[in-house]
Amino acid sequence: MEKTKKRAKIWLCIGLALMLLSGIVVSMVQTGSGSIEMKELKIETDAGYAMSAYLFIPENATAETPAPAVVTSHGYLNNKEMTDANYVELARRGFVVLAIDQPDHGNSDNIENFNIMAPDGVYQGVLALSRLPFVDVERIGITGHSMGGWSCNAAIRADNAAETQLISAVLIHCNDPIFTDDDGNYANLYGSRDVGVIAVEYDEFFHSSTDENGNSLAAPYYMESDNAQSFLYFGTDPTGLEPREAYTYYTEEIDGEEAFHVIYRPPIIHPWSHFSARSETCVIDFFDRAFTSPNPIDSSNQIWQWKEAFNFVGAIGMVIFVVCFGILMVFTPTFSSLRAKELVAPMPVKDGKGKAWFWCSLAVSAIFATVIYIPVLLWGTSLPVNQVESMGLGLWSTFCGLFTILSMVVYYYAYGKKNGFNLRDRGVTMPLKQFGKTIVLALIIVVVSYGCVFVVDYFFNSDFRLWTLAIKTFEVDKVWNLLTYVWLFLVYYIAASVSLNSFNYNTIGKKWWINDAIISLFATIPALVIPWIQYITYYTQKHMMWPASNMHVLWLFPIVLILFGANFTSRYLYRVTKNPYIAGIVNGVIVGIITVINTCTTVM
User: Fold this and answer.
1) Are residues 287 and 384 in the same domain?
2) What is the CA radius of gyration of the chain?
């Protein structure tokens, strides 16, 4: 065990080094190696709520030489960090950028009567930018993904009604522009502003249309629709007009000013557009054409991917830290009683029945989790709660956890007990005092490990995000949400850790890590199979298998990495402690944190 302790110290240092490296590189990318000033703000908006935002000020933006500026907005259930490709690339090209948290999201205030169809965060951002001396008020643009596109359209309506118009260009990202006036007639409500739409070919939520028979058509048919053609014809009824094409800038003189409209069509899906060089090329080209970049850089020259890559390096470092910190803690006098006398060895599989129980239990659990996912999510997200995503995913986790517990009980009484399986020997049962220490140690591991995220954020304005998997800081109000929903996740992750280690850690797979990989693969089957079915159908048939549940399918993307990471920490800690509950509690709480801080919180 001394060798294990020594290795844990070395790997703990490696984990810390990876998190530090992550923060340094991400900071360099975000600040252009010091040429861009990055500030985290809380803005008191004209609407009466506090809005969290990042402000990026390139060195070319001064009171003497004001620069063009852009407000960037995330979509529903996300936060400002999700727009990192936009703010990194626009800021390095000389734009002042304000990346906002919409109300009820991120660290902005939760407000009553939040309207997902018309959140006003973008317009409040425009007002904030217009008051900065280093911003050229004649060149303020806005862009928003998904719900952020609705916010952009709401900002246009507010700007039209204002005494002085502030918005000069708008890029709708994975949402629809305004096609008609209040009477339902085709119209150009954008006036003389430059307008673009990133209408990805396989958008799951927007850009739908109908054919001549009234049949609904999904996004792949968007360019053929009257709505898209009317937009490119600046609000004119397109009947009888020659079809216009994507990636072409169509211009028209409006109120004495030349404006352009354009539709971009990258062949990707809605959420991938956050994480796509193709989409980011569209963003860069649009604002360069609308305002002319103060620091021209070809749109193919993009560095935001380095930020994402090193965010992931930080996440890997954090997982390593969780494991090694937990191992080292059981070598302290306080928690030494939780340490096993030697590394736990896998159980031998005695006969064919034992192998059958192993494979069948994994298969049945995977099938159960896959079959119930969509029905449970539809039910959970319909409940009157303040975080529908946390409730839906939490209930699915709970049902999967209860099924895992049931399968362990059936195995124990049907086969394990008769063949020498001992609950105490495998760590399933323990004295109450030991279990109390287990809870305390698990919470210490969570606090110290997640504290590293706050340290990196404090010094580098960075987090450990990879696309939709967001390991980031949070404010105290999220603690109450965590206490509300974390129990739902604990049921699964504790049960999964007991199953993985106490029941299924055996000689199938020969090496312990092969055994772990097999079990992890089966655990991730729902998160792999459901999106495969959804998107293979979409790409081949141009319609989705579950169109009413497309949001729920998207939530599975980060779960693949979460489940693999959870099993990794679980197996390593179990081999040193013979205690499956430490990792189960740690994983449940951390997954609960990740879920409740990266979603929408409504005022009930």
Assistant:
1) no
2) 26
Whole-number Å distance between alpha carbons of 113 and 330: 49
Residue 172 sits in the same domain as residue 319: no
Do 284 and 319 lie in a common domain?
no
Angle made by CA atoms 304, 305, 311, in degrees to the nearest 5: 95
Residues 305/306/310/312 CA torsion (nearest 10 deg):
10
Residues 593 and 498 in one domain: yes
Q: Exposed (0-12), middle (13-18) or buried (19+): which is 243, by Cβ within 10 Å?
A: exposed
> What DSSP element (H or E) covers 518?
helix 512-523
Per-residue pLDDT tens digits for 85-126: 999 999 999 999 999 999 999 999 999 999 999 999 999 999
Number of structural domains in the chain: 2
> Is there a domain that residue 448 lies in?
yes
Q: Which of 354, 370, 356 is nearest to 403 (CA)?
A: 370
As a whole number of angstroms, the longest Cα–Cα distance in the chain is: 88
Q: List Cα–Cα distances, 265 to 207, 220, 228, 273, in angstroms.
A: 11, 9, 12, 11
Do residues 207 and 321 share a domain? no
Question: Alpha carbon of 303 to those of 69, 145, 294, 297, 461: distances in Å?
Answer: 20, 20, 18, 11, 17
In terms of domains, do 256 and 322 share one? Answer: no
Say if 18 falls within a structural domain.
no
In order, the DSSP letters of 249-263 are -EEEEETTEEEEEEE
Q: Which residues pair with 180 in a beta bridge?
A: 186
- Examine residue 107 and state whether it is found in any structural domain, yes or no: yes
DSSP 504: T
Do 357 and 241 fall into the same domain? Answer: no
Single residue among 297, 323, 355 that ends a domain in this structure: 297
Neighbouring C-beta atoms of residue 277, cutoff 10 Å:
14
- pLDDT tens sequence across 535-588: 999 999 999 999 989 999 999 999 999 998 999 899 999 999 999 999 999 999
Q: Is the same domain home to 381 and 518?
A: yes
pTM for this one?
Answer: 0.95
Domain that holds residue 85: 35-297
Q: Is residue 70 a contact partner of residue 90, using CB atoms and an 8 Å limit?
A: yes
Nearest Cα to Cα of residue 565 among 482, 449, 455: 449
- Among 297, 322, 351, identify where a domain stops: 297
Taking alpha carbons only, the member of 398, 323, 252 closest to residue 565 is 323
